[in-house]
Every structure is written in structure tokens, then in C-alpha cells.
Amino acid sequence: MTEPRNRVVQVARFGGPDELEVVDAPMPTAGPGEVRVRVLASSVVYTDVTIRRHLYPQTMHLRPPFVLGYDVVGEIDQLGDGVRGFQIGDRVADMTVVGSNAAYRTLRADDLTRVPASVDAAEAATLILSWTTAYQLLHRAARVQRGQRVLVQGAAGAVGQALLTLGRMAGLELWGTARSEHTGLVRELGATPIDYQSEDFTRVLPGGFDVIYDGVGEDGYRRSFAALAHGGLLCAYGYSASVEAQRRIFTILMWIARLYLWRWLPGGRRARFYSINAMRARHPAWFREDLEHLFELLATGAIRPRIAKRISFEEVAEAHRRLEAGSLEGKIVLCPDLGSRLDQTPPERRPDTSVHSSSAAALGAPTPISRAP
User: According to CATH, where is 3.90.180.10 located in the chain?
Assistant: First the structure.
């Protein structure tokens, strides 16, 4: 039998997509309290671009070479000493921030979330970062109420699509900013589209929005804050505009810090910056609970995340270029078992972002959250 081989996608130097390289790596071994997984799926996300450019606060301490990969769905193939409750062959998920664009990797058993056997591994991987972020923004950070008027900046992005889908299930009145070519997608997801290239979102709703979600950070979030209603909340969770403009990390951090000073301005409006890693560190049980809930929604067909393409190792650099171009309407997922250039989605599962009416009616809004973050 051929010995298993580990391959990884690593950042050789901070910079553009050409600084990525696919290399053979030593096969990891599960230590005490760890499992080793054969990676089935690992997302390639815009946050990876931020990490590669050395603009992500949580990874500022890392120096190349290091392996990318923010999330992972894998099958356990080795158990370390002291691991209880798992066995060889179990499918599990984790949010790792780095290290999961690989064929094999080790994970702490205490951090794992079980993945239902009935769901597609690539679709499950799309939920770990983007959809859990969206769910927590709605139900942990803002604790939205049915009927609230909500604006999603960058609505065609991965988190934006999840916010619209889950927001519709929660009974919100939704608007979403996007490029003109993506307004059809925003409308399909149940929101009123706003073409940010030709429309001024600050003038769309007299009186302002109750909640605004902004992962773009154009103008340092100023215009989003100005579009809030009295007592409204701005939840910032990203700064893709600053990454595209290649601003320095110090400038980005200053803009984030300024959000917390705006609460003292007249008008009763509030602003906060949401970090999924900070939320998980404070409330680890919430992360597992929310991800398990999303896996249940996926298993019942209540949600169906959109996958733009399933890729092999050789296609990762090109995937980063596509992410930077901003033309995607779905997630790119690295599937190590794919041969080079094998494509897309299994024929039995066509990409779709709809919420099926029967499932949505049975499930209702997402599980109510009574605890404040």
C-alpha cells in the first residue's frame, strides 16, 4: 500500500497570490488530546487574502512560511492519547484560522464539532466561518427582532449571503448593497438591492436603519454610521475596502477603535466591532452550539450555501486572484481528494441559496438566544 502523503498550501512570503506555494509536508501525528483528520474540505476565503497580506490582527505574530486554511471538515484517522468520545471515521469540523489548506492536520479534540454524515463536506465547510459569523452577528451581537429594518453592506459576499438568508428566516426587512451585476442575487435572497455604484444607501430609507452590518469599511464606516436610525446599531465585522486599498494595519486598527467612541455622539446610535475569534474565546460553547444548529439546517435542506467551485491544490493561487477580483457569488472550497482541474458540484446537488418553504415553516426563526454576548 502507498503511504499517505501530506500536501499543504503555505505562504512563502507576505504579498500577492504568487507568494503561495503547494509543498509536500511531514505527516502530522496526533498528540495527547488531539486527533488527526484526513481533510475533506477547507474553505478558501477573503480572510485568507487578509492574512496573506499581513493585515489580519489575529495572525500578525506569524512569519512565513506558514500554512493557510481558516476552517476544516475532516475524517478522523488517528486518535491521540486521552481522547474520549470520538472514533476513527468520525466526521468533524473546526475553525482553525490557519493550517487547514492541507491533506492532513491535527486538531484538539475539545474544539471539535460533529458533522452529520448526511451533509456534503464542502457545503458543511462553508458554514464554519461565514455562516457562523452571520448567525452570531444576528443573534448574539445584535439580537435582532422580527420586523427590524436591516442593511447588509457587501450583500453578495459569503457573509452577506448568509446574513440575508438567515435574516429572512428571522423575519427581518432587508436591504443589501452590491455591484450592479449582483443585484439579482440580492433580490433572490429576499432583500431589496442597492447598487452602491449608482445609489446612495444613506438616502434609501428615511429615518435610517435599525441595524447595519458592514464588512467593507468604506470611509472608515462613517457613512454606515450616518445611515442608522435613532438608537440603531452598526455591527462592523471586516474591512475589505482597506485591504483592497492596501492600507496599513495601524490605520485599520485606528478605525476599529474609533467605532467605540461614536457611542458618545448625539442620536443614541451605537457601533461595535465583531470578531468571531474573540466571541469564541469568551463563549466557546456558543460557537459549537451555533455551528451545530447550522449543520442541522443544512441537513434538513432549510439552507443551501452556494459553492462557486471545488478546487484542487493546484488551483489555490488562482482562487485567491478570483477572491481579490470580487466577482464570485459563492464560496471556493479546497477538496484535497479532487484531482487537478476536476470541477464544481456533484450533479445531484445544484448550487442554490434558497430557503425551502416547507423546511423554513417547520423550523421557524433560528433558535432564540436569551443570553447576552
Answer: 5-115+306-363
